[in-house]
Amino acid sequence: MVDASVFEPYQPEPSGRRLPTEMVHIRDGVLADVPACVGLVESVLKLDPAPWEQSLTASITDPQRMLHVAEDAGQITGYARSTFWTRPPDAPANAAPSGWYLLGLVVAPEYRRRGIGRALTVARLSALASRTSEVWYFANARNQSSLDLHATLGFVEVTRDFWFPDLTFDGGEGVLARARFDDTSS
């Protein structure tokens, strides 16, 4: 569980100075990026970095996962993951459906509110558009910045009553949302 205190404070309009697009490069992650991403897990999310090295490495080496990074002057300033998840046969009735999920968008605090999270999300959606007709995403109901970002990219709330393995939300409530590439209906 990620403590809600690590979320970007909600502001409906960006307030930070946006970096020129050519300064921040969004690209597919490579194995050499894993240590910097693990560092963001520890410094931004305040989580134990030990289990994250394996997970982030798998996001590069497993064809059912993806890692995108934001880089500024050779420094990794953020990352975002995607994964294909298969609903287990013994899952509860309210289990999230099988499909591609956007996971783990992390941006260093000094780079927030500059369009990096949006750019990382657009990169993931672009990469997934050829693989699927829909993408899923979940967030803590308290993370209004994330909910707003994803809504502007076509995500529509589906439910707040869902199960996903090993997932709990600070405050107890999450939002499951979906974006479709083939149409705009929910």
TrEMBL record:
Organism superkingdom? Bacteria
Provide an example Pfam family for this protein: Acetyltransf_1
Entry-linked SUPFAM superfamilies: Acyl-CoA N-acyltransferases (Nat)
Species this protein is from: Paractinoplanes pyxinae
- Listed transmembrane segments: none
Q: What is this protein called?
A: GNAT family N-acetyltransferase
* Key words of the record: Acyltransferase, Transferase
**Does Transferase appear among the keywords?**
yes
Residue ranges of every copy of the N-acetyltransferase domain listed in the record:
24-182
